[in-house]
UniProtKB/TrEMBL annotation:
Keyword DNA-binding in annotation: no
Pfam families xrefs: Desulfoferrodox (PF01880)
Organism field: Rarispira pelagica
Protein family per UniProt: Belongs to the desulfoferrodoxin family.
Domain Desulfoferrodoxin ferrous iron-binding: start-end pairs: 11-122
Signal sequence segment: none
Protein's name in the database: Class II SORL domain-containing protein
Alphabetic keyword roster: Electron transport, Iron, Metal-binding, Transport
CDD domains cross-referenced by the UniProt entry: SORL_classII
Lineage, opening ranks: Bacteria, Pseudomonadati, Spirochaetota, Spirochaetia, Winmispirales
Length: 128
C-alpha cells in the first residue's frame, strides 16, 4: 500500500490535525517570505505525553518541476513527560516558521504527524 493512502486531510470535529499554512498575499519571485504552519489553530490539538504532534514537514512543488523540494522539518520533542504520570516542566507547541524563497509558482504542502491519528496534509498554491 502506498504512503499516500494513509495521509488524511479531513479533520475531526473536536480536535484539529490538518496543518494550517499561512503565507503573505504579496509573494514576489526570488524574494524571501515567511511560511507559518500550525496544527490546532482553530481548535487545539491535545499536547500531552500520550497524545501529541510529533513533527511538521514542508515541501514545495514548482509548476515546472518534476519533483517536490523538501523545505524543512520541525520536530516537537517536549510533550510534558515527566516521571510517572506527573506533568513535566515544558511543552513544545506544534507551530513552525520557515523562511522561503521561490523562483517559480507552485504548491506548498505541509504534513503533520500525530502519534495516535497518523499523517495529515494540506496545501496552498503560490502565485506571483
Amino acid at each position: 500500500m502506498a504512503l499516500g493512502n494513509w495521509i488524511k486531510s479531513d479533520d475531526f470535529k473536536k480536535e484539529k490535525h490538518v496543518p494550517v499554512i499561512e503565507l503573505p498575499s504579496d509573494i514576489k519571485k526570488g524574494e524571501p517570505f515567511i511560511v507559518t504552519v500550525t496544527v490546532g489553530k482553530e481548535i487545539a490539538h491535545p499536547n500531552t505525553p500520550g497524545h501529541f504532534i510529533q513533527w511538521i514537514k514542508l515541501y514545495f512543488k514548482g509548476q515546472d518541476s518534476n519533483f517536490p523540494v523538501d523545505l524543512g522539518l520541525a520536530e516537537f520533542n517536549a510533550h510534558g513527560a515527566a516521571a510517572g504520570d506527573a506533568q513535566g516542566p515544558a511543552l513544545t507547541e506544534p507551530e513552525a516558521i520557515f523562511k522561503v524563497k521561490l523562483d517559480e509558482p507552485g504548491t506548498i504542502v505541509a504534513e503533520s504527524y500525530c502519534n495516535i491519528h497518523g499523517l495529515w496534509e494540506s496545501s496552498v498554491e503560490v502565485t506571483f
